[in-house]
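Exercise 7.
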Amino acid sequence: GRTHVLPGDRETNETYSLRRVLHRLVTSPTFRNSNRIITIFRNGEVFINGPVNEVFVPFERAHDQPEDANVFFWGSIASYGSTADGKLWLNSSELRNQGLSVAIFDDIRDQFIQFFEVDELEDLVGAHVLVNGRCHLSATSQKPVIWCGAVRNIILRRYRENQQ
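Solution. The predicted structure, written as tokens, is:
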């Protein structure tokens, strides 16, 4: 949310969904770089609280976060892949060992595809994602990987081209 100061020095809070927050992160450099305090609630309790620019970390800065940091990572999807064990990989780079990957666990893959109404995995390319999770570095490539084990921990926003 956001706080507004009204005439008479009153403050009021504004509430956003995480989908709206992702849109603001993508479209507003002022918002994404803001040090205004934002509070994220889960099940009626404070889940994360802090400055916008620390709570929402762009993929490019993911490797700077401690592994125990409870933050949201966000960025765009450049490619995707599947592994034999059923995981879906959303990659921030077209090159396999570069960028960052979000790993969607095999046990929620179908739920993810259904929830976000994904007809073809190719439709994910160019989408923006906001995901809560811990960022770990791959032991082999030192590539940042965010593990997503619950659909409620990820927001996906696809941008459709204007058809004329």
